[in-house]
Write a structure and sequence with these properties.
Strand order of the largest sheet: 1-2
Low-confidence stretches: none
Strand content: 5-15%
Order of helices and strands: HEEHEEHEEHH
Largest sheet: 2 strands, antiparallel
Oligomer: single chain
Shape: globular
Bound molecules: zinc ion
Helix content: 25-40%
Number of strands: 6
Mean pLDDT: 94
Structural class: alpha+beta
Number of helices: 5
Distance between the termini: 26 Å
């Protein structure tokens, strides 16, 4: 059970559900230099299952920074806060774009710790957003579909 792997069918379903965008930083797969990962929102090491409600599409950067973490101390409230959960939360309720759509702003404690730990405003990602915005390809027009 613990060795359960993500099936090809699950990979396809997760990528489609996410509209081929990273579910954290909203990077678009079609403009990515590296393939995206199907990640376990709750890591397998913490008992997370390989099921669609625990899987998300993630770019390599977000996936690497998230690693096996699920929570962080919010510097403003001082509380330990769980990261954004793509299956349980709505992106727009926890994040917003700044005026020129280059930076993700955390609107809530959940949003803030996720921006910080996953480094949603990494230099390369920010620069790519700027370039894509200038040609009308950012932000991704289609936000996550409601389940
Ligand atoms: Zn990402």
């Amino acid at each position: 059970m613990s060795e359960q792997r993500v099936t090809a069918q699950q990979k396809k379903a997760v990528a489609q559900r996410a509209n081929q965008c990273c579910e954290y930083c909203r990077s678009q797969l079609r403009f990515a230099m590296q393939p995206f990962s199907i990640e376990h929102i709750i890591p397998k090491s913490q008992g997370g299952e390989t099921s669609l409600d625990n899987l998300a599409l993630s770019c390599q950067g977000c996936n690497n920074h998230k690693y096996n973490k699920t929570e962080e101390i919010d510097k403003i409230s001082g509380n330990i806060v769980l990261f954004y959960h793509p299956r349980q939360h709505k992106w727009q309720e926890h994040f917003a774009w700044n005026n020129d759509f280059t930076l993700v702003i955390g609107l809530t404690p959940t949003g803030r710790v996720t921006v910080e730990v996953l480094q949603l405003n990494r230099d390369g990602v920010v620069n790519l957003r700027r370039v894509l915005y200038s040609i009308g390809e950012h932000p991704p027009s289609d936000v996550l579909k409601d389940e």
